[in-house]
Design a protein that fits this description.
- This protein has a single domain, classed as SMI1/KNR4-like (3-Layer(aba) Sandwich), CATH 3.40.1580.10.
- The protein contains five helices and seven strands.
- 29% of the residues are buried.
- A hairpin with a 4-residue loop joins strand 5 and strand 6.
- A seven-stranded antiparallel sheet has the order 1-2-3-4-5-6-7, sandwiched between helices.
- It is of the alpha+beta class.
């Protein structure tokens, strides 16, 4: 994802539980089949980690996650689209503070309120999203301050 993410993960590996790497060809085929367009940094993140849990309460949804745990991209997005979320948005993160989406047409990241889908913040990259949303919330709590 970025250097800060990797440093945090190295310092506190107990806070990061990931499902495992996804081969790039498999991910690309899945994205094409589903018609999802995501920025390269999110694709790289999924290829490296497969999605999973961060900071005990935050879920990075997985293309191949479990529907019964609601940690998969497909069922979570279907639910939110049926609840009024714009069709060109793709939820990739759920957590205490709400949802995080990729605006697929713009390639922009945003944190949004669950239910109203009101945009709270926007980010230009996954690294900016991590620093400006998750890390800002959890760094002090978990001793990740410089």
């Amino acid at each position: 994802m970025n250097l800060q993410f990797e440093q945090d993960r190295a310092k506190r590996p107990d806070l990061f539980y990931f499902l495992g790497a996804i081969p790039a060809e498999e991910l690309d085929a899945w994205l094409r089949h589903k018609g999802f367009v995501v920025p390269e940094d999110l694709k790289k993140f999924w290829c490296q980690t497969g999605g999973g849990e961060l900071f005990e309460t935050e879920t990075m949804l997985s293309p191949f996650g479990r529907t019964d745990l609601a940690d998969d991209i497909e069922s979570v997005n279907l639910f939110h689209r049926q609840s009024g979320m714009p069709v060109d948005w793709l939820v990739f993160h759920t957590g205490i503070g709400g949802l995080s989406v990729v605006k697929m047409l713009a390639g922009q990241y945003a944190s949004v309120q669950e239910g109203s889908y009101q945009v709270q913040q926007t980010f230009s990259s996954l690294a900016d999203w991590y620093a400006g949303l998750l890390r800002r919330e959890y760094a002090a709590r978990y001793g990740l301050q410089e």
